[in-house]
Amino acid sequence: MLVIKQGDITKEEVDVIVNAANTGLRGGGGVDGAIHRAAGPSVMQECRKIGGCPTGQAVITNAGNLKAKKIIHTAGPVWVGGRKNEPALLRSAYENCFRLAKENGLRSIAFPAISTGVYGYPIIEATQIALQVGKQYEKDFNEIRFICFSERDLKVYRKEFETV
User: Fold this and answer.
1) Mean of the per-residue pLDDT values for the chain?
2) Where are the domains of the chain?
3) Which residues are catalytic?
4) CA-CA distance, 50 to 12, in Å (whole number)?
5) Rounded to an integer, what distance in angstroms lies between the CA atom of residue 135 and that of residue 148?
6) pTM for the complete prediction?
7) d(CA 139, CA 20)
8) Strand residue runs (E) in 38-155
9) Which of 8, 18, 90, 140 would suit a FRET pair with 32, their CA atoms being 20 to 30 Å apart?
């Protein structure tokens, strides 16, 4: 089942939440910073041991103080006008999150809008990719949640859900 809602991803009660991380797994602003603050220092310690995550890939850690069991960290692409393979890299980021969750027996997953904040990916195009990949994996999960930070993003997700 696909669920679209507005909220704080750090409060989601699912098996795994997805972190829109940077390639160095160093924490940062936006959803990445919020997840690290809520999860506590043990997650950053795990990220330092892992060392990094190439764009479009994903890695998994424990969830620290969060209600989720695990965090999957993925580095989405920075938008540079679509000239640097951004759509394929964003699709890969979502697909690798689903693959990693399946491999670890995690049946419910919550996603933020990957790459749409400071990375500048246009929200409509990013949402279409997220929902397309989500629908491909829907049969493998009990629940797939797309957690929108803003009312604007929520409206885009709901509108695009009807057409994807």
Assistant:
1) 96
2) 2-163
3) 32
4) 25
5) 17
6) 0.97
7) 24
8) 58-62, 70-74, 108-111, 143-148
9) 140
Give the whole-angstrom CA distance, residue 143 versus residue 107.
7
Report the distance separating Cα 68 and Cα 66, nearest Å.
Answer: 5
27 token code pair: 């924490």
Residue 23: the pLDDT is 96
**Does 77 have pLDDT greater than 90?**
yes
Distance of CA 85 to the CA centre of its chain: 19
Give the burial class of 83: count Cβ atoms within 10 A of its Cβ; 0-12 exposed, 13-18 middle, 19 or more buried.
Answer: exposed
Distance CA 154, CA 150 (A): 6
Q: Is 89 exposed, middle or buried (0-12, 13-18, 19+ CB in 10 A)?
A: buried
The answer regarding whether domain 2-163 maps to CATH 3.40.220.10 reads yes
CA distance 134 to 151: 21
